[in-house]
């Protein structure tokens, strides 16, 4: 029997080195991991977790990914944020939390892990709903982001609403559909925020059952036509969770794409 692709969501990972707060709410925090080895301070990789923005999914399920990134020599911050189903989550708190966290984490991490983290703008690695949030931050606060690696992102909120991904997840985030709260879609949907000037790589598995790969194909085509610095890497045979699993066949390619974004600045 093939391994359960969701196993990574509950796989134990080493505890982070530090946890820092970027706000007063208990979920306005980030777990920091020190990069393996020695060397100069490097820009942070901020991991933005997915879970369709819902409260039942938190940063813990990206522990194996974050630990693997740290083992590969990257300083890592797993940012948490308020999510739908909890006070302050949804519109606009989920989005403003990630905006604030991304802006403040380089300095917070540089102080918490002295000599290992530079204060330069970070690279964002976002998965699923976290891919949406990473591209949203890059589009609305480009000075705070050096690059985006979007793994199976929910890149088109209008289309995700029409497809009813995860049973109303987008409506829960924004408080309704595109005809009910059009201003919120205009402000939050990457499809309407192109061109995104921050260099972005979208990776998507062809066998994704949670976020169809077709959505990324269509988004990248439209974003490139609008002048975005964006490319698509589609992985044949890969499903949704393989992109965040260091034990999956997709993982080496994820590392290659991250290196191309991270080492260019």
TrEMBL record:
Biased composition (Basic and acidic residues): 14-36
Chain ranges of the BD-FAE-like domain: 31-220
Keyword field contains Hydrolase: yes
Region (Disordered): 1-36
Alphabetical UniProt keywords: Hydrolase
Pfam family membership, one: BD-FAE
Gene3D superfamilies: alpha/beta hydrolase (3.40.50.1820)
Coiled coil: none
Single Gene Ontology MF annotation: hydrolase activity
Protein name, per record: Alpha/beta hydrolase family protein
Organism (species): Micromonospora chokoriensis
Upper classification of the organism: Bacteria, Bacillati, Actinomycetota, Actinomycetes, Micromonosporales
